[in-house]
C-alpha cells in the first residue's frame, strides 16, 4: 500500500502544467507583439506611469531603488550560490542545476527577447535610473519570477506543511510584485514590460520544475 501511494505520488509530481505554461507564454507573446515594431504604446500604460510618479517622495525613491536591487545581477547570483550551497549541504543535488538554470537561463532569455522586440524605454515620466538597454521584457521581473518561483517549488517539495507552503508562496509572490512595481515606480519600464517579464520567468520556472521532476521520479511520462 505504501509503495503504491509513493508510486502515485511520483506520477503526480511529474505532471507537466502545460496549460499554465502556454497561458503565461501566450500573455508574454501578446504583450511582446504590442511592444515590437512601430506599434504605439497603449494609453493606459503611460497613464499608469504618470499616476505612480505622483506618489514619489525621497524616502520612497530610496526604498524602491533598494527593492529593485533585489533582482540585480549581483544579488541574484549571490542568492543562487547561497541556495546551491544549501542544497549541497542537504544533499539535494538534483535541485542545484535547477536553481542555477532558473536564474542564469532567465537572464539569457530576457537578453535575447530584448533584442527581438527592441522596445525603447519609457519617456512619459522622468526615470530615477538611467538605462540604455531595451525595455521589453523587464529583466528584473523575468529574473525575479524565475528565481523566486523556482525556489518556492523546490522548498514546496521538501515541506509537508500546507500552511508553511502557502506562507512561502506568499513571500515569493510579494517579492516578485515589489521588485516589479519598483521598475514602474522608477519609470524605467512600462506595465506590460513587467507583466511580460513575470510571465516569461514563471513559464521558465515551471518548465525547469517539470524537467527536473522527471529525473527525480525516474523519467515517468504524463502522456
Principal-axes geometry comes out as: globular
As residue ranges, the low-confidence spans are 1-13
Specify the number of helices: 9
Number of domains: 1
Indicate the percent of residues in helices: over 70%
Instruction: Sketch the major β-sheet.
Output: none
Strand content range: under 5%
From the alpha carbons, calculate the radius of gyration and give it in angstroms. Answer: 19 Å
* Distance between the first and last residues' Cα: 24 Å
Overall mean confidence score, pLDDT: 89
Q: SSE string, helix = H, strand = E?
A: HHHHHHHHH
**Count of distinct strands:** 0
Alpha-beta content class? mainly alpha
Describe it.
The chain has about 220 residues and is mainly alpha-helical. It has one domain. The chain has helices spanning about 1-15, 20-35, 45-55, 60-70, 75-90, 95-115, 140-155, 160-185, 190-215. The chain is globular. The model is unreliable at about 1-15 (pLDDT under 50).
Amino acid at each position: 500500500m505504501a509503495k503504491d501511494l509513493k508510486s502515485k505520488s511520483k506520477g503526480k509530481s511529474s505532471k507537466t502544467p502545460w496549460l499554465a505554461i502556454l497561458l503565461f507564454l501566450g500573455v508574454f507573446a501578446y504583450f511582446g507583439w504590442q511592444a515590437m515594431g512601430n506599434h504605439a504604446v497603449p494609453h493606459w500604460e503611460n497613464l499608469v506611469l504618470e499616476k505612480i510618479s505622483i506618489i514619489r517622495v525621497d524616502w520612497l525613491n530610496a526604498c524602491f531603488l533598494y527593492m529593485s536591487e533585489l533582482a540585480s545581477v549581483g544579488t541574484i547570483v549571490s542568492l543562487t550560490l547561497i541556495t546551491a550551497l544549501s542544497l549541497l549541504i542537504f544533499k539535494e543535488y538534483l535541485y542545484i542545476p535547477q536553481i542555477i538554470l532558473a536564474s542564469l537561463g532567465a537572464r539569457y532569455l530576457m537578453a535575447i527577447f530584448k533584442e527581438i522586440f527592441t522596445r525603447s524605454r519609457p519617456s512619459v515620466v522622468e526615470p530615477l535610473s538611467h538605462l540604455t538597454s531595451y525595455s521589453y521584457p523587464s529583466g528584473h521581473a523575468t529574473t525575479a519570477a524565475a528565481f523566486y518561483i523556482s525556489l518556492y517549488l523546490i522548498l514546496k517539495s521538501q515541506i509537508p506543511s500546507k500552511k508553511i507552503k502557502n506562507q512561502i508562496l506568499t513571500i515569493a509572490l510579494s517579492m516578485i510584485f515589489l521588485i516589479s512595481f519598483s521598475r514602474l515606480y522608477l519609470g524605467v519600464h512600462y506595465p506590460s514590460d513587467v507583466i511580460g517579464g513575470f510571465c516569461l520567468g514563471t513559464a521558465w520556472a515551471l518548465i525547469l520544475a517539470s524537467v527536473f521532476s522527471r529525473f527525480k521520479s525516474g523519467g515517468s511520462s504524463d502522456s
